[in-house]
Amino acid sequence: MAGVLIKCIRMLKSFGKYSDANNLLKAEFPALESALGKDDLQVGYILFEHGQVYRKLGMGDDVPTLETAILIFEKELGKDHFDTASARMHLGIGHLACHQIQKALDLMKPAVDRIEEIVGPEDKAVVKALFELAEAHRIAGNQEEQTRLLLRSIEVSKAAYGPNHPETANQYMSYGEMLRVSNRDDEAAKYLELARDIFVASLGSGHLMAGHVENRLSSLHINTQLWSKVESHGLTCLEIYKAWYPPEHQFLGHIRAKLARGYVGAGKWKEAKAYAEESLVTLRRYSQDPFLPFCEWSLNQADTHLA
Question: Is-contact 142 175, C-beta < 8 A?
């Protein structure tokens, strides 16, 4: 029964159904833990899955749950086992969410090293581990180490998955986003467009991942002030997001806010006003959304020029 529960949880996670996974765990786990014993290895694996579910739901119980799983893994599998290292990796991610950055890095760096030792330097598991460690260094403000890890994750992904695989595109997107935030616009555009092209070729032009890259490209060109590109990338992203998200979703408000800013830059005041107003209807549903002042500025600019 424990094995079936673990398979069900992993399946629900793969579909992004974390609330359903949490409800199933709450319903089934207490009886299983009672029957198997608190220190049983299968209990450890269930806790390992539940910790990841808690983190995705932002429930705050992921750290103690993963800590318990690690204790079971260390006892039953050993401190150097792959699953023990993987659990430490996830615990580090949990500490990141709690802003305990050094604690996270102290867990994640040796976990990545151990994962690489076990599976080899060109395994798919290494791609994920490098990506998560790079994210930790991003949060810590260590851009040099973040850059090194992202470039390495690209090379490992090309070897493990192939150069035109969506996972490799995901690494390109992450590296391109880092370049965008660093105002290295030309380099950022190169990597983001490469990621977009791979997603479109492998997953289809309407896939959500293609939309996420178009979103980043619209942000990039607000910075470069190439307003026609803000419009083209923004409209493409909007159409994709409308197919994947409900009308009131925050991401739809964000991309409309970017379009409004692009239309202000281009002097297209009617379009700027229309998109800003529609964006504000969405974003005012969310308290203190960071795009609200940005969007209100665009609306004020449009109203001033249309008056």
Answer: no
